[in-house]
Amino acid sequence: MAIRDLITKEFIFFDGAMGTMLQQRGLKTGEIPETYNILHPEIIKEIHEEYIEAGANIITTNTFGANELKLKNTGYSVEEIVTNAVKIAKGAKGEKYVALDIGPIGQMLEPIGTLNFERAYEIIKRQVVAGVKAGCDVILIETISDLYEAKAAIIAAKENSDLPVFCTMTFEEDGRTFTGTDPITMVTLLEGLGVDALGVNCSLGPGELLPIVEEILKYSSIPVMVQPNAGLPKIIDGKTVYNISEEEFSNHVQTMAEKGACILGGCCGTNEKFIKKVVSKLNYKTPKALENKEYTSVCSPSKTVILGNGVKVIGERINPTGKKKFKEALKNNNIDYILTEAINQMEAGADILDVNVGLPEINETEMMVRVIKEIQSIINLPLQIDSSSPEVIEAAARIYNGKAIINSVNGKDQIMKEVFPIAKKYGACVVGLTLDDSGIPSKAEDRFKIAEKIVSTAKEYGIKKENILIDCLVLTASAQQEEVMETLKAVRLVKEKLGVKTLLGVSNVSFGLPNRELLNQTFLSMALVQGLDAPILNPNNKAIMDVIKSFKVLANIDKEAKEYIEVNSNVEVKQEVQTTNKGDLKDIIIKGIKEEATQITKELLKTNDSLTIVDNYLIPALDVVGGKFERGEIFLPQLIQSAETVKNSFAVIKEKELLENKKGVSKGKIILATVKGDIHDIGKNIVKVILENYGFQIIDLGKDVPIEKVVKTAQEEDVKLVGLSALMTTTVKSMEETIKSLKENNVQCETIVGGAVLNPEYAKMINADYYAKDAQEAVQIAKKVFNIV
Ligand code: B1M
């Protein structure tokens, strides 16, 4: 039976771990497991056969890290390793399918890292092409923690093969992936991209995974796959050990299967006994039938918005139409202007942002791609790609990280033919305007007919009606007064008869009339009563947002009027806070607007000294960001953006300090390093600039510095003072070991330590000679060590 059919009818059993099995068979630390496909094919074959014997239907090739980056120094090509791996798996005795295993690339994608989306795609494409050529049956993309990487991998798999694609991601204890994706967001994107099965692997032990699996099952309409570890990994004597028995493991997997997971296997620490036990408990049973979960959702990497669940506001401000300043910003590549519009709308309560950058004088495709990437690096609201050009839409839908809304198609066949395949491929929602070759019908019934045609044509392209949003089009009361009510009637018809979500551009209604705000508010209330799900409007207009808030109370959406009461108490105080924050460097860092930070820092430096800016703006801003990160209000990408913004600001400070630093005789040589395992270097860099400013010569070893490097440099350079920085509880240990190693190697130097996790007591405990709270204290200590008065 074809795998695609099989997974909807029977339990499918995958194999268990490969890496830990290889370690037991002699794989040493530092050895690349994939080289075994060439050097020890018999070992790999033996492992496959043990799993087949245990009852696995699908075995996974030994190609987890078989990408060109990881294989670079092995002397083998991706093609050699992958071809051999598939050959070995296919040659293993017994009945089975072979899954081509694709693990993470090993480098982070932009904006967290430096790898761009298309480069990631090319790396994975090479693995896929080789695997398909060698004859694998399924493509398994697994242990992915970055949703963007999952998207690149899935597109690479689907564009270069017709095979079933399964994708599983890895979650942390807080229920999100390392980059902040929660289960519903994973389901929203992966299902949209058309994978055949999705789920979770590795991460935690099976017990800890259960709530994540339940959440995935709640939203997924396609088969769910689970491959847990053999318990929570623990490091004992430098080795990773897994702590649960086959019995316990299989009990948990059975529970997951009873709840609906249907593709089951194991990850780290499991072996053939674990798989055998799972198979023995579930073989010959049938999985729960799949059900289509009919909801409409869009997402960014860390936030999913469900439409139809209360009113969702689509912010309309990123659009040059009728906006002189916006047009100027586009022409001048002033991305910060656009980012500020995005931030303001988010803060004003928008749920989704429309992005339109169409201007004849600019390259719309390039600008759209750039603006989407920039917005996504600082804001986690889902976006609506708004363009009349299919080329722009395709480029944007491809690089967008998440499930977007495409704005728009209409009842004309040509536009549907061009846009629906894009929406299907990238799994986007599409706005359908109720107009066709004859224009906008006056009567509600005729607009409804166009909506029907859009929904049924979408179906022919494989797009579910949940992914269509109908816009019944708002006409101006000044010119087409009798049609205002027709629009509202059409909204009700679409909602009730088609069961499709609706959106409307509200402010058109008042065009050409005085006191537009009042008409907009009244029209919005009327539309909401008809069932409008998503108004497109200016969220910065408080009066119109207030209509939504009060509607939510009256329509029993805002239960016990909690939200309403919260926003309507202490209104004056809140407004005051907002105005004082505007344009403040601290605020800009928190929001992550890089270019603006440079400008404002230059301004501030005219009236403030460098350390005042560091102490009053940079550090407090990062403290706020750190707190938000800890509470799960923002995720790694946003944290990085704020850090990058601080770097821009600090670059200006550094330039000024260096200009003023009168170069003369060095007052002493000091080594500075952020310790092994720690990549936080903002604080260390500040200390460096200030020490240099006081005439000390700094040997900056950078961040994540190996202990040996510190020791060797201190010896070779005959340095009297070594400064170490650490920001994490976990890396204080490295600091301690670095100091220990300096002492053991008899390096004649003193040590000074700093960083937010340290205090004088800790410093003493790890045998540091000095502790410095900040850069100024570091200077005082350096003066003391070098006897400078
Ligand atoms: Co991360 N991070 N971060 N981070 N980060 C913290 C430290 C954290 C407290 C945030 C939180 O959860 N609240 C938390 C650590 C928790 C803990 O262990 N207690 C944390 C975490 C968990 C992580 C990651 C693990 C997140 C993840 O990937 N899941 C990851 C770590 C990766 C790694 O290191 N292996 C990570 C990554 C990052 C970014 C890359 C995004 C970015 C760093 C960018 C960079 O440095 N190039 C980042 C940032 C920016 C932060 C926060 C928000 C700010 C740190 C900072 O720069 N502060 C931070 C939360 C916070 O501190 N509020 C956080 C400003 C800086 C000027 O202060 O470094 O203390 P500080 O330096 C001061 C003084 O301490 C002193 O002088 C400086 C000036 O006054 N000082 C010295 C410092 N070193 C000195 C040396 C001296 C003398 C004085 O003599 C030698």
TrEMBL record:
Coiled coil: none annotated. SMART domains: B12-binding_2. Keywords: Amino-acid biosynthesis, Cobalamin, Cobalt, Metal-binding, Methionine biosynthesis, Methyltransferase, S-adenosyl-L-methionine, Transferase, Zinc. SUPFAM superfamilies: Cobalamin (vitamin B12)-binding domain, Dihydropteroate synthetase-like, Homocysteine S-methyltransferase, Methionine synthase domain. Its EC number is 2.1.1.13. Residues 572-665 form the B12-binding N-terminal domain. It comes from the Bacteria. Its cofactor is methylcob(III)alamin; Zn(2+). Residues 667-789 form the B12-binding domain. It catalyses: (6S)-5-methyl-5,6,7,8-tetrahydrofolate + L-homocysteine = (6S)-5,6,7,8-tetrahydrofolate + L-methionine. It is an enzyme of class 2 (transferase). One of its GO terms (molecular function) is cobalamin binding. Zn(2+) binds at C202, C267, C268. Pathway: Amino-acid biosynthesis; L-methionine biosynthesis via de novo pathway; L-methionine from L-homocysteine (MetH route): step 1/1. Residues 1-282 form the Hcy-binding domain. Belongs to the methylamine corrinoid protein family. Catalyzes the transfer of a methyl group from methyl-cobalamin to homocysteine, yielding enzyme-bound cob(I)alamin and methionine. Subsequently, remethylates the cofactor using methyltetrahydrofolate. This is Methionine synthase.
